[in-house]
Write a structure and sequence with these properties.
The protein is an alpha+beta fold and 115 residues long. It contains three helices and eight strands; from the N terminus they run αβαβαββββββ. It is elongated. The chain starts with a helix and ends in a 14-residue tail after the last strand.
Length: 115
């Protein structure tokens, strides 16, 4: 699946807005997507470093219109924790030289609220 098929929409609620300061973003995702696929899709779409992904299946609610009773569809929700303080990674290269790798990660998702 391509990242646009995995991440369907942001979930904007009072609780999800409170968790934004901690670097937690909530998305409606494809029901067949795994945690690894969700993490890769968020990293590719928003250019952030994903630390953790929590997923849950949300069952649909019963709705009623007059005499007829129906049910809304089930969906999957993912809470993605991103790295709010991305740092340069240093490692030892050939010859014992220290090498820095500075990946350009963002520290927040600007497009989340439609900004």
């Amino acid at each position: 699946m391509i990242p646009e098929e995995i991440i369907l929409a942001p979930v904007v609620t009072e609780k999800s807005n409170d968790e934004l300061q901690q670097g937690k973003y909530t998305f409606k995702v494809n029901k067949k997507a795994t945690k690894v696929e969700i993490a890769k899709a968020v990293e590719k779409l928003f250019e952030v470093k994903v630390l953790k992904v929590n997923t849950m299946n949300v069952s649909g609610k019963k709705k009623r219109v007059g005499y007829h009773v129906g049910k809304t569809s089930d969906w999957k929700k993912a809470i993605v924790t991103i790295d709010t303080n991305p740092e340069d990674v240093t490692y030892l290269a050939k010859g014992g030289k220290e090498t820095k790798v500075s990946k350009k990660y963002k520290d927040s998702i600007d497009e989340f609220m439609g900004a």
